[in-house]
Amino acid sequence: MQNAQQWVSQQHQNEAAVKSAQETLVATQRQMDVLKAQRESAAASLAQANAQREQAKLNLSYTTIVAAQPGRVVQLSAAVGQYAQPGTALSMFVPDDIWVTANFKEIQLDHMRPGENVTLAIDAYPGRAVHGHLDSVQPGSGTAFSLLPAQNATGNYVKIVQRVPVKIILDDPPSDVALGPGMSVEPTVRVNPNPSLVERLGKML
Questions:
Q1: 196 three-state secondary structure
Q2: β-pairing, 117-122 with 71-74?
Q3: Structural domain that includes position 129
Q4: Model pTM above 0.70
């Protein structure tokens, strides 16, 4: 009889332990669901933070203006911390790769060809010669491409020698002087490849 009572008591204890384990399992499963929801929320917050970081990087990149080629900034009107509206001119840029646009008379272009040697006399630096070469000749006069090209109507035509822009590239631009747009230059194009009399006499001496 005593063994039966012990067995019944043991059975009740086992049933209580099973019930407690089942309740613990249900609570654990609910806790896992809560943790999964928290993880998904944390992942969404992380994705939002990454997007905000990328947007901040993009906004920060807008604060730095990078030139496409080496040069110098002139007429800088912006200041540190100043807000600028889109389309506002903050400065002018003069590239280091400069060239000369010479307006030769059309009657001087007969023997000019790309690659010919050019000697430049710069008014700002007298007595100093800069060498270059002819790069290209514009296929048309300067006035033909102006905003209001001249129109000669029949009956009042007056022949005027036109000027044609010629692009000259500097072969040895001086680094100790400042060269920029608008400076006066007098170019001389060597259309005859043969040495001049002065050059031949100089070699003889």
A1: coil
A2: unpaired
A3: 92-150+157-192
A4: no
